[in-house]
């Protein structure tokens, strides 16, 4: 069927996966020809087309209002629609992210509501793990739209939605800085979409050259693996970071109780999550070395030992910040 369709449209305008077929046509005449090819081939191979699940959509320039087809009507018994889900991605006539993003936000809220009893009582690390399992796959499908989106405001909207979903799952307040949220997520939409584009282009190259010598995939330099800031962090860290978004009780001007403000204005020293993370890495490294020296084979630290160390490390700073906020006076 693909080769029959290729007689009317270029191969790159044909998208087929299992029993799903999508074709891009420049005009109605070509569309009629392609539909006839698909219907004839399906009939010859004893396959029935489900026209209720099939659809026709007219793509147009974002500033163009006049359209050839009327949404709600039918063409050759196929409904004309203004949104359609194809292989997990919601498409609309303008090929922007609005339709898909709306679906993601709705689904995220439903999942968040169902998981709320677990999220309330679990650690920051587990909250992030649940977010990665249930929410990140939803945004993976929007990455092609994100990469080719010409409007920066649309990209910012997608990134904001991703950050809001992370805050919703972890319990961080709106006042937590964007840079910190990005570091805690460890997920960059721009880098991820670029990486997927490179992989897709290599796969397409192999598909086009299936009858010739296929060059091996280009080995890309691996990105430096960063330590997960949420690793081994309990829900106390969420409280600690949220406390730093509170307004300073001693300053007449509006200031947040951030690490820098407390140090410069009130001579109070507290650590941030980056310093705690470095201490945790050093603790893991030192204990691994010590246990290797005592035994012939490397031994792993028990998780409870690590969690107790982390809690004891954070608790003094939490108490210091809590006393400052409650007393409203310099410590």
Radius of gyration: 27 Å
Q: Which sequence of SSEs, written as H and E, runs from N to C?
A: HEEHEEEEHHHHHHHHHHH
Unreliable segments (pLDDT under 50, ≥5 consecutive)? none
Shape: elongated
Q: Number of DSSP strands?
A: 6
Strand order of the largest sheet: 1-2
Beta-strand share of residues: 5-15%
Class from helix and strand fractions: mainly alpha
Helix content: 40-55%
Largest sheet: 2 strands, antiparallel
Q: Supply the number of helical segments.
A: 13
Question: Between the first and last Cα atoms, what is the distance in angstroms?
Answer: 77 Å
Mean pLDDT: 86
Outline the structure in words:
- The protein is mostly helical and 331 residues long.
- Helix content is 53%, strand content 5%.
- The protein contains 13 helices and 6 strands.
- Strands 1-2 form a two-stranded antiparallel ribbon.
- Helix 3 (98-121) packs parallel to helix 7 (152-170) and helix 4 (124-134) crosses helix 7.
Main features:
elongated, mainly alpha, two-stranded antiparallel ribbon, 53% helix, single chain, 331 residues
Describe the structure in brief.
Helix content is 53%, strand content 5%.
Q: How do the helices and strands line up, and which of them pair or pack?
A:
Elements: H1 2-5, E1 14-17, E2 20-23, H2 28-44, E3 74-75, E4 78-79, E5 84-86, E6 89-91, H3 98-121, H4 124-134, H5 136-140, H6 143-147, H7 152-170, H8 178-185, H9 189-208, H10 235-243, H11 259-266, H12 273-294, H13 303-327
Antiparallel strand pairs: 1-2, 3-4, 5-6
Helix pairs in contact: 3-7, 4-7, 10-13
């Amino acid at each position: 069927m693909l080769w029959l369709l290729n007689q009317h449209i270029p191969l790159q305008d044909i998208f087929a996966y299992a029993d799903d077929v999508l074709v891009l046509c420049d005009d109605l005449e070509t569309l009629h020809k392609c539909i006839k090819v698909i219907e004839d081939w399906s009939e010859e191979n004893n396959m029935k087309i489900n026209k209720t699940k099939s659809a026709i959509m007219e793509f147009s320039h974002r500033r163009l209002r006049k359209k050839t087809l009327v949404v709600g009507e039918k063409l050759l018994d196929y409904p004309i629609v203004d949104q359609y889900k194809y292989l997990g991605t919601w498409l609309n006539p303008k090929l922007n992210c609005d339709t898909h993003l709306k679906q993601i936000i709705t689904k995220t809220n439903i999942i968040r509501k169902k998981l709320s009893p677990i999220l309330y009582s679990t650690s920051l690390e587990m909250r992030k793990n649940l977010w990665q399992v249930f929410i990140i796959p939803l945004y993976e499908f929007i990455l092609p739209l994100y990469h080719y989106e010409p409007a920066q405001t649309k990209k910012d909207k997608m990134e904001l939605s991703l950050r809001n979903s992370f805050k919703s799952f972890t319990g961080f307040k709106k006042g937590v800085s964007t840079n910190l949220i990005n570091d805690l997520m460890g997920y960059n939409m721009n880098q991820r979409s670029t990486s997927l584009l490179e992989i897709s282009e290599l796969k397409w190259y192999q598909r086009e050259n299936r009858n010739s010598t296929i060059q091996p995939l280009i080995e890309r330099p691996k990105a430096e693996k960063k330590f997960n800031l949420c690793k081994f962090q309990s829900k106390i860290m969420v409280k600690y970071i949220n406390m730093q978004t509170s307004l300073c009780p001693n300053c007449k001007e509006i200031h947040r109780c951030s690490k820098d403000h407390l140090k410069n204005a009130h001579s109070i020293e507290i650590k941030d999550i980056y310093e705690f993370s470095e201490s945790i890495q050093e603790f893991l490294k030192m204990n691994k070395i010590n246990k290797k020296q005592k035994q012939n084979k490397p031994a792993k630290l028990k998780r409870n030992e690590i969690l107790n160390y982390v809690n004891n490390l954070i608790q003094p700073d939490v108490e210091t910040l809590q006393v400052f906020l409650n007393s409203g006076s310099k410590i």
